[in-house]
Automatic annotation (TrEMBL):
It comes from Weissella viridescens (Lactobacillus viridescens). Catalyzes the formation of phosphoribosylamine from phosphoribosylpyrophosphate (PRPP) and glutamine. NCBIfam families: purF. One of its GO terms (molecular function) is magnesium ion binding. The lineage of its organism: Bacteria, Bacillati, Bacillota, Bacilli, Lactobacillales. This is Amidophosphoribosyltransferase. GO terms for biological process: 'de novo' IMP biosynthetic process; purine nucleobase biosynthetic process. In the C-terminal section; belongs to the purine/pyrimidine phosphoribosyltransferase family.
Amino acid sequence: MATTTIVNERSLNEECGIFGVWDNPEAAELTFYGLHALQHRGQEGAGIVSKKADGRLWQERGLGLLSEVFADPRRMMNLVGDSAIGHVRYATAGSNGIENIQPFMVNFSDMQIALAHNGNITNAKTLRQELEDEGAIFQSSSDTEILLHLIRRSKALTFDEKLREALLKLRGGFAFLLLTPNAMYAALDPHGFRPFVIGQLPDDGAYVVASETAALASVNAEFVQDVQPGELIRFDNTGMHVSKYTEHTTLNIDAMEYIYFARPDSNIYGVNVHKARKRMGKATAIEHPVAADMVVGVPNSSLSAAMGYAEQAHLPNEMGLVKNQYIARSFIEPTQEKRERAVRMKLSAVPAIVSGQRVILVDDSIVRGTTSKYIIKMLRDAGASEVHVRIASPEFKYPSFYGVDMQTTDELMAAHHSKAEMCAIIGADSLEFLSVDGLIDSIDLPYSGPGNGLTTAYFDGHYPSPVYDYQASLAKLAEAGVVTFDPEP
């Protein structure tokens, strides 16, 4: 029997979204709304942990979309208190069982701790083995649980010191939210791979922490600041306290946040995502013009780039594809017929728009190529005379290890085929990609430190830090100089 696999329509997924509130009587409800704004970052599971008036923590979590997990109103009724943290999950490390749904909560003899994590710990396998050899018993297969064991095994005197010591042992991309009876903590990895922001409610001054600024806006919180690489921020009854657990930091925000993952209304380190995508589209049009009648963007994350391309090319930007907004996930069996049917459930071509027209199809990326192939076929079936594909990002050639579910090159089309071969496989009249330099210039990150402030490893093979437990998988490429690793900062 064929195994059913849960994937999204784009075959590229981000790991998680996290949200927390400190010192507001409706903390859990606000966390629910904040997570709803982050649902695009994870659709396999959701959870919320609240802190009651007496300091005790209470957990509610489950598999599925946020609305499914909290469909029973009693779950939200249980989440009383003035502080809460929440999580929406897409699995890149660990299976999709209930035991891996966050926030994790542990009951130690002297305190409770809840933990939510966005990212991927690249030395998790090594650390887990060391901890198990010392007697640690893991309740999940998620790399997130490692931090809890490291905290508990620390010999430091205070919880803050234990947490700092534990964070220094982790490598990779991570944004953490922790909730204890006395405080809420936010911590970001030394490279700042994942976006992480702090806001404040205007009425009572309660602090809000989220994966994206769009989630702050959903609860009417005002942006305060981005969490910086290597920072550990404590929220308690005396306010917000910013410190660093390491001074060895650089900024290497994941370029895929601007290309695909983040909401267009979010700002990441001062750059609006919609504007960045629009500039990517313009740059793609400058680098790769083609004679055509219209521009059509692939809904939804490519619409901004399509606007930019059309503007630069002086062509109409038409709605040649329509997305069914009510399908959140696809249950796709690995057969061509059922994959194509799933794409048709999500997208429809509009014959009245594209028939007889030369179409420039703008998309944000090509990963496996199957979705592109089906969309092009849809447009041709709808009467398009030509379909020229323009990708508003570079070719995705190398795996990701910082929180995106592409940790091998097996499914990366560009890793195994030339551009001409890819064009023939997907059935386009032409295919072009934005250059790496064009991408960097389009994002235009206001950053004056070393490098350009971005991680573009998927496109150029330049990893801003070693990837430890995954290093062996790239050993031959590293020996050949195809991929490179920066030393620890």
